Amino acid sequence: MSENRADSFLRMIRRSQRGRLKIYLGYVAGVGKTWQMLEEAHRIRQEGIDVVVGFVETHGRAETAALIDGLEVIPRRRLEYRGIMIEEMDLDAVLARKPHVVLVDELAHTNVPGSRHAKRYEDVQDLLSAGIHVISTLNVQHLESLYDMVEKIAGIKVRERIPDTVVADADEIVNVDLTTEDLTKRLQEGKVYPSDRVGVALANFFKKTNLAQLRELTLREVASQIDLRSRDVSETEITATPDQVMVCLSSRGPNSEMLLRYASRLAGRLNRNWYAVYVQTPSEEPTVIDSQTQRILSGTLTLAKQLGAVVFTYKGEDVAETILRFAKEYRVGHLVIGSPGPLTFWKKLLQKKNVVERLIQNAGGVTVVVLDTRKSCKFPAEKSEQFAMGSDLAAAPSDRLLLSSVLSPERIVIWNESIDKEDALRALVETAARDCGMNDAASVLEQVLDSEDQGSTFLNEGAAFPHVRIKGLTVPCMALGLAHRGLADVISDNPIECVFLILSPAEKPEVQLQILSVASRAAQSRYLSSNLGEAATSEEAFEHILDWEATEEPLSARKQSR
Predict the structure, then answer these.
(1) Confidence check: pLDDT of 493 > 70
(2) How far is residue 391's CA from residue 353's CA, in Å, rounded to a whole number?
(3) Which one, 54, 57, 243, 400, has the greatest CB density within 10 A?
(4) Other CB atoms closer than 10 Å to residue 46's CB: what's the count?
């Protein structure tokens, strides 16, 4: 079986122009992920593939260390932090060596301050962008969307986490499984941790009940990844099934992170696009709310982006009405919201309804999921899993639409100097209108600015997706702006460098959703983003898009192993 898995990865390596990622996934330390990764390295080395060790953590296990013998090891980078010398993978050395395949253990690892990136998975994304194939390892508890479930199961807060999109974008996932009895035996024999740590481990994280639940969680995750890649439906099914997922955020709402993780899992199970929407009321204008609340909100929106959501902020006095208007426009089928806050005495006296009650009353066919986000929340992880996995809804074929089919070199604008948001939008609208045969560019710009004023799309770090549906437009049209020095008047942790202007027929709302999905996927590709950031001409940028599309296989075509 392991030989067949190695062969399948070999075939991917030989036909690929961009780096491919293979992950050995386990439910806990000690199941044999690193061992299997090293065994595969020897296998592909015998096949003549140039493979090196970028970083492998043996944890003092002699058998694992012995497997490194015979493999080229890139020397580690040593950094001093608070008087202690710490070793990290030398990313620059691996890039300079440019092997065909590199082994990078512990994908969720946090790098020491002073490194190029904060997380190791970001190092891996750089390697993939450089055309280097990566084999890595990961434990299931490090997935961001599983944080609340793992805390419920094991009673611990996992500090090192990675966005689910990293795993979703992997080209191959191998589930490294071991019975809980065999794992416990390995632990007792000192093959996982030193003998002085065995007793503490068995009494805490490695309790049999914990291991059994984490193992089941891993099997579900692998099954969902396979299911995600195997679905394939026609556009007519999509049109008839408006089931995007939307999560409602609040600047002062408790446990927004739990809402986002739940929505991410739900969208993953349904294989649907999902949106994170924050409604900014007059009392929550940036000039009104305090700096701490602003920081919390910024962190929440950043997490939403990391989990794969398309993030919007809407301005409105009536939160429920604004949410329902968004849900209708974006064909939302599942709306996720947290527990409502207590009503004031006067609102109770006047028998006013809270936001959640009004949403349920006026949902009109939308499924409203209310999570208990109070401090003592105890929503059952297993029930949310069953709810999501039990659906037979069709999957959105976001891989089937190509950016190149709605874009052209003539509709790519590059700014080498910093530019304001409105000037950028005006230039993109004029470019799109001229190339797509629209006569009234001023009217289109007015619609775009009104849409942005209602709900800004300039919150996704590094990219924005302004979009409107145009009456009378027969085919969709996109213009792409590349701001190499960012937008001057947009405050974001990472500068907005890519602006995807999407104009679609008003009569075909599903087309807008499909283009939004593929544009969001493009923006999340470090491979494409880094190349676009270096493009000097629109023709060069378009070639980079074609190259990305050529190397991006549809999810359903990716080889999976269990």
Answers:
(1) no
(2) 31
(3) 54
(4) 9
Least confidently predicted of 12-16, 85-89, 353-357: 12-16
List Cα–Cα distances, 307 to 170, 400, 480, 487, in angstroms.
15, 22, 24, 24
Please list the alpha-helical segments (H only) found in 396-471. 421-436, 441-454
Is 70 exceeded by the pLDDT of residue 385? no
Which tokens hold the place of 473?
Answer: 């437009």
User: Cα separation of 178 and 27, whole Å?
Assistant: 9
Domains in the chain, ordered, with CATH? 2-230 (3.40.50.300), 235-396 (3.40.50.620), 400-554 (3.40.930.10)
pLDDT tens string 457-480 = 776 568 888 999 888 888 899 999
Q: What's the sign of the alpha-carbon dihedral 262, 266, 267, 269? A: positive
- Neighbouring C-alpha atoms within 13 Å toward the C-beta of 482: 25
* For residue 53, pLDDT beyond 90: yes
pLDDT of residue 73: 96
Element (H, E) at 308: none
Cβ neighbours for 485, distance < 8 A, ≥ 6 positions apart: 415, 416, 417, 418, 495
> Which tokens belong to 393?
């809804």
Q: Which tokens sit at 509? A: 């709302």
Kindly report the CA angle at 82 between 76 and 85, in degrees rounded to 5? 25
Q: Which amino acid is at 299?
A: G
Token pair of 506 as six digits? 């008003």
